[in-house]
Amino acid sequence: MSTTALYTWRKFKNATMLSLTGLSLLAVVGVLFLILAYTVSKGINHINWDLITKMPAPVGEEGGGMANAIVGSLILVSLGSAYGIPVGLFAGIYLAQTEKGWFARTVRFLTEVLNGIPSIVIGVVAFIVVVLPMKRFSALAGGFALGILMIPLITRTTEEMIRLVPSSFREAGLALGIPRWKTMMFVILPAAFKGIFTGIFLSIARVIGETAPLLFTALGNRFWSTQLDQPIASMTVFIYDYARAPFDDWNQQAWAASFILIMLVFVLNIIFRFVTRKTYTA
Amino acid sequence: MYDIMQQSLKENDIPRIQETLESVSGATDAARAPRMEALGLNAWYGKTQALFNVTLSIPRNKVLAIIGPSGCGKSTFLRSLNRMHEEVGGSIGGSILLDGEDIMDRDPVFLRRKVGMVFQKPNPFPTMTVAQNVVAGLKLNGMRDRKELARIAEENLKRVALWDEVKDVLHKPGSSLSGGQQQRLCIARTLAVEPEVILMDEPASALDPISTMKIEELIDELKKKYTIVIVTHNMQQAARISDFTAFFYMGKLIEVDKTAKIFTKPTHRQTEDYVTGSFG
Ligand SMILES: Nc1ncnc2c1ncn2[C@@H]1O[C@H](COP(=O)(O)OP(=O)(O)O)[C@@H](O)[C@H]1O
Ligand SMILES: [Mg+2]
């Protein structure tokens, strides 16, 4: 092959690859756009302040909103975070410090197994260990299920992010006569903060969209409730109920609620970017 | 060549360091007593032994250089002195004394405040500012007084001749400084906890010649107050800055003496080969 032919061939390959990557990008952005457009077009009649400020209307009446479901979702996620984040963090710190040993290896393996368990199964487990003994569905049971879902993700990112911090910082801390736990808390964790925070954020973004584990635990509630030992509403269960209902008005509200949920995750994302923007990197 | 070395590495060849050092030390007993001593020190990484029966005195307020080819155990020896060797899962046998007391009887946390360490690669804490880096050791051990911390930061930055260069960027990340500045920052950080002994593991090997020169000047200044042990594989550097030089080879201490003697009339053949550049 002559040099020019080779050159043309290379340019051709280059152009092909570039188009392929461009197409993939379009596919991703296109799907996202489709979802948003479809959601908005279906729920356009109900995307209004009522949806986020009003309570569900009695069956048979038009309108109403999901104020209780939004608050309920936030309560459920907070409950899950309240123990999912510390447990995940400590497990991650432990694993990062203990490379070897059967216990660490077992914990690491179980974390991965836990990560792979379908969320509906976690819901059933929460049903058995919390709902049955309490003899009622409750916010606590829902938070428990969400917390379990958060743990493996937080554990894994924490472990990995701590490992990414060069050991020279740990050595520098120890060589200054700083005890190990303080070196971990004030030297290593801050250096890994951004990554760990990303893990926590992703786990929150993941569980806020969970429905299945809540059906067996928090159940849902058409009324205002912030009591932790009572059934509580959530956006996802609201969407689930309203999408299945035989009323057009409810179906549209389900679409509108979906849009709000997507927007909420979007806003969380922006807050997250803002928080992690100004930290020094290693 | 290799065979000759192997042969001369026999036990009875371990030099009489004690005598050598005592003959050159100061007048009073206290001044004559070494700051630190390794007695029959062995060190392992798991099952592999890295140091063999090292007996070596570290004289007070002097600079002891440790030289030898890569992998001969220089860093291992240094890290045994502040018990950092254990932090990578290593173990030691024999004993190490600090002012006559066995360091294995001490809490490593307190030992390391007396025996500070500077690493090969500058490692200022990435999430702390220049000023915070200097006082990190004090702050993380409970000192709260902001004024006092600021004063100590300034004092120690001046001691390492960094103050003028960084006084306007005290609130920038420590990692934003140049490599040479970072290393002096790390030395300031070590000095701030008021150690008595400073261990330096090739502190200038990652730096440019000018920064290296600054570090060397600093070491010369510091030895008035501190006992310094410095690992270097730069022979000229050892010759320039140290009072005593110890030559290690394959985990053993071959020879320790006044630096001038090591570089002009070493007792042992391997030392001579090494310092004249026949190998290593
Ligand atoms: N973390 C470690 N684990 C296992 N072996 C090590 C470790 N660090 C050093 N060694 C071994 O110990 C010996 C001495 O190493 P070192 O003290 O680092 O030598 P030097 O500083 O003189 O180059 C070498 O053979 C090296 O391979
Ligand atoms: Mg070394």
Could you give a short description of this structure?
The complex is a heterodimer of chains A (282) and B (280). Chain A has 282 residues and is an all-alpha fold.
The percent range for helix content of chain B is: 25-40%
Largest interface: A-B, 23 and 26 residues
Total count of domains of chain A:
2
Q: Main sheet of chain B: which strands, in order across?
A: 6-7-8-3-9-10
The distinct bound ligands, ions and cofactors come out as:
adenosine-5'-diphosphate, magnesium ion
What would CATH call the architecture of the largest domain in chain A?
Orthogonal Bundle
CATH topology title of the largest domain in chain A: MetI-like fold
- Overall radius of gyration of chain B: 19 Å
Q: Can you describe this structure?
A:
The complex is a heterodimer of chains A (282) and B (280). Chain A is 77% helix and 0% strand. Chain A is built from 11 helices and no strands. Chain A has 2 domains: 3-46; 49-281, MetI-like fold (Orthogonal Bundle). The relative contact order of chain A is 0.14. Chain A is an all-alpha fold and 282 residues long. Helix content of chain B is 39%, strand content 23%. A 6-stranded mixed beta sheet of chain B has the order 6-7-8-3-9-10, sandwiched between helices. In chain B, strands 2-1-4-5 form a 4-stranded antiparallel beta sheet. In chain B, α8 packs across α10 (179-192). Residues 1-27 of chain B have low confidence and may be disordered. Bound molecules: adenosine-5'-diphosphate and magnesium ion (MG).
